[in-house]
Structures are given as C-alpha cells and as structure tokens.
Amino acid sequence: MAGRRHYGGCELRSRSGMTLIELVVVMSIVGILAVYAGAKWQGDLTLYPKADQLLNDIRRAQALAMSKEAGYTIQTVAVDSYRIVDATGTVVDPQPTVLTDVTITPFAITFNTRGDPGGASVDITLTMAGQSVIDRVVGNTGAALRLP
C-alpha cells in the first residue's frame, strides 16, 4: 500500500499537489511580477516601432537613390522629425515624418546611385521617456541596422 501510513489507528494519506490557497498566492505573485515587468517594458514597446519606421525610411531613401539613379538625402529637420530630399533639393514627401515624443540626434545621410552613403558609419540615437535606441547606417554598404 504505497502512499498510505497508519498512525495511532488513523490512516494518513500522502498528499501531492497544491491547495487552492497556495494556488491563489502563486497567481498573485505572478500577477504582481507581470505588472512590474509590463510597466518597465512599456517604453520599449512604443519606442521600437518608431525606430523601425526610421530604419524603413532610411532604406527607402537608399532604394530611391538606386532606382532613380540620383542622389537622395535623408536628414533631420527638427529634434523629432526628418525628411527625404533628392539631389536638387526637392522634397519627396510634402510633410516631414514626425516621431511624436521622440528626440532624434541630428543626422544627414546622402546615398549615391549605388546606395552607398560614403565611408563613415552614422549612428542615430532615438530617445523617448528615458529609453534610447541606436540605429546605425554602415559606411560603404548602406546597411541600416539596430545596435544591441
């Protein structure tokens, strides 16, 4: 009779599993940790899509330069906005792209007809609510990527 013991004429069974109270305590702790972690990552969840938008627009400027066989520049116009212009200074989009609540380090990247931005890499820092992300455009290749 595995799992059964006798003590003073009473039969005791070994119990396995959790009681309802233990389950409620564990779920409460997990809930508290989830709320804390969610608040911590909330800034990342809103900053990363905006940083992705910038990376996509950098790639767009590069693609325009290669497809139109002309120089294209993407540059900041304010601390929270940027735009793409061609070699003659004509603006590609009528309105600059604004990243609300984000501060962008000033930058200007010009792509030639091969999609090459020149020799030096350019780091662009985006900051929002104390969180920062760095996007890099690699010199001589034009690869646009996020730094860890």
What does this structure look like?
There is one protein chain. With 148 residues, the protein is an alpha+beta fold. The chain has one domain: minor pseudopilin epsh fold (3-Layer(bab) Sandwich). The protein has 1 helix and 10 strands; from the N terminus they run ββαββββββββ. The strands form 3 sheets. A 4-stranded antiparallel sheet has the order 5-4-3-7, with helices on one face. Strand 3 (72-78) and strand 4 (81-86) form a beta hairpin. It is elongated. The protein starts with a strand and ends with a strand. The model has no long low-confidence stretch (mean pLDDT 87).
Give a quick rundown of the structure.
With 148 residues, this protein is α+β, with helices and mostly antiparallel strands. It has one helix at 20-68, and strands spanning 4-7, 10-13, 72-78, 81-86, 97-98, 103-104, 108-111, 122-128, 131-137, 144-146.
Helix/strand layout:
Layout: E1 4-7, E2 10-13, H1 20-68, E3 72-78, E4 81-86, E5 97-98, E6 103-104, E7 108-111, E8 122-128, E9 131-137, E10 144-146
Antiparallel strand pairs: 1-2, 3-4, 3-7, 4-5, 6-8, 8-9, 9-10
